């Protein structure tokens, strides 16, 4: 197998592009794909500060590495979800990476911020774990961006994540979610801009980048995702891709090309009418949804037997 560009020995085969690459040409290809995503959706500029949500997995660590190499100003933010060994490993890998690269990292614990772990929140609020996790992340990422003077929050969602999410949203005609399925969401009503610079790259490509660049990441999936429908949709997309390489990208990019026909671009939304009485975040009610969740989780009437992790600081820096 030879590199499509320089004819040296190739190390990665990308059937969706009918191409194989040697390590240096794969690196150029991958950096180019990230740059294209940033440019096409005007995600951010070199004068802006980017809060990068880093989980400790391959995608977010690799994205941090790439944005740093491209000369962007990044600040890492890790939210410890309190999910046993998985969270311990995730924090450790994130810390090690930041230290090795001398990058700024802020850490917060969901147990301290929301009053309980993802499992606790899920149990008390009767939400599925990923929904409980999502509400908390949205609020805390946004708060962290504002606290650290960042104009944008970047996450490591890749093409596989986005295509499987699109499949799920279409199967259930989730118009609200489809409307928001865009790799760049503008700042809107007090929420800072949100971007996904890896939307052109697959999981396999991100794993190869991490391997070739010596990035040590948490390999196992979050245990809460075991029953997540998203994994099932990923399997379906992978089967389709195996039968017909290029299907995943045609499906997802085809949607993005047509998106405005179905969901025309709106004028930037007005700020929500309230500021939460407890945390001052912009809110559609007097108390924001995150504070309502925290009140419920910490209420003495709710699950008094829940174990609560003790913590000495809410934010630390590596
Ligand atoms: S799988 Fe669910 S619980 Fe785990 S990190 Fe993702 S959203 Fe959170
Ligand atoms: Zn080459
Ligand atoms: Zn609030």
Could you explain how this protein is built, in words?
By secondary structure, this protein is of the alpha/beta class. The protein has one domain: HUPs (Rossmann fold, 3-Layer(aba) Sandwich). Helix content is 47%, strand content 12%. It is built from 12 helices and 11 strands. It has helices at residues 23-40, 58-69, 84-101, 110-114, 118-125, 129-147, 159-171, 175-180, 203-212, 229-243, 247-262, 289-298; strands spanning 12-14, 19-21, 49-53, 73-80, 105-109, 152-154, 184-185, 193-195, 274-275, 282-283, 316-317. α2 packs across α9 and α5 packs across α6 (129-147). The longest helix is centred in the middle third of the chain and has 19 residues, at 129-147. The structure holds iron/sulfur cluster (SF4) and zinc ion (2 copies). The site of one zinc ion has 8 residues, from α1.
Write the SSE topology.
Blueprint: E1 12-14, E2 19-21, H1 23-40, E3 49-53, H2 58-69, E4 73-80, H3 84-101, E5 105-109, H4 110-114, H5 118-125, H6 129-147, E6 152-154, H7 159-171, H8 175-180, E7 184-185, E8 193-195, H9 203-212, H10 229-243, H11 247-262, E9 274-275, E10 282-283, H12 289-298, E11 316-317
Helix pairs in contact: 2-9, 5-6, 5-12, 7-10, 7-11
Q: Helix/strand-derived class?
A: alpha/beta
Q: Which stretches are low in confidence, meaning pLDDT under 50 for 5 or more residues running?
A: 308-318
- Summarize model confidence as the mean pLDDT: 92
How many strand units? 11
Bound molecules: iron/sulfur cluster, zinc ion
CATH architecture: 3-Layer(aba) Sandwich
Query: How many distinct folded domains?
Result: 1
Q: Which geometry do the CA atoms define?
A: globular
Provide the succession of SSEs.
Answer: EEHEHEHEHHHEHHEEHHHEEHE
Biggest sheet statistics: 7 strands, mixed
CATH topology: Rossmann fold
- The rounded Rg comes to 20 Å
Number of helices: 12
Which range best describes the helical content: under 10%, 10-25%, 25-40%, 40-55%, 55-70% or over 70%? 40-55%
């Amino acid at each position: 197998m030879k590199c499509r560009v320089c004819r040296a020995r190739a190390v990665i085969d990308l059937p969706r592009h009918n191409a194989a690459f040697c390590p240096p040409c794969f690196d150029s290809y991958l950096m180019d794909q990230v740059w294209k995503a940033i440019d096409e959706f005007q995600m951010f500029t070199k004068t802006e500060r980017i809060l990068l949500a880093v989980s400790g997995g391959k995608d977010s660590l690799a994205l941090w590495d790439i944005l740093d190499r491209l000369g962007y100003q990044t600040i890492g933010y890790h939210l410890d979800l309190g999910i046993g060994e998985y969270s311990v490993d995730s924090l450790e890998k994130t810390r090690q990476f930041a230290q090795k690269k001398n990058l700024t990292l802020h850490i917060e614990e969901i147990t301290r911020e929301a009053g309980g772990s993802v499992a606790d929140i899920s149990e008390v609020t009767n939400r599925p774990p990923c929904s409980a996790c999502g509400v908390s992340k949205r609020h805390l990422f946004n708060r962290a961006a504002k606290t650290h003077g960042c104009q944008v929050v970047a996450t490591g969602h890749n093409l596989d994540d986005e295509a499987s999410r699109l499949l799920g949203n279409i199967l259930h005609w989730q118009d609200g979610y489809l409307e928001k399925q865009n790799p760049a969401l503008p700042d809107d009503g007090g929420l800072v801009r949100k971007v996904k610079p890896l939307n052109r790259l697959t999981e396999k490509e991100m794993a190869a980048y991490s391997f070739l660049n010596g990035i040590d990441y948490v390999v196992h999936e979050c245990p809460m995702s075991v029953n997540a429908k998203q994994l099932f949709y990923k399997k379906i997309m992978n089967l389709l891709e195996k039968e017909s390489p290029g299907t995943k990208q045609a499906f997802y990019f085809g949607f993005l090309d047509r998106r405005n026909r179905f969901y025309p671009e709106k004028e930037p939304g007005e700020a929500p009418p309230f500021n939460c009485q407890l945390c001052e975040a912009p809110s559609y009610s007097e108390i924001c949804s995150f504070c309502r969740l925290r009140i419920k989780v910490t209420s003495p009437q709710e699950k008094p037997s829940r174990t609560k992790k003790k913590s000495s600081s809410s934010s630390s820096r590596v």
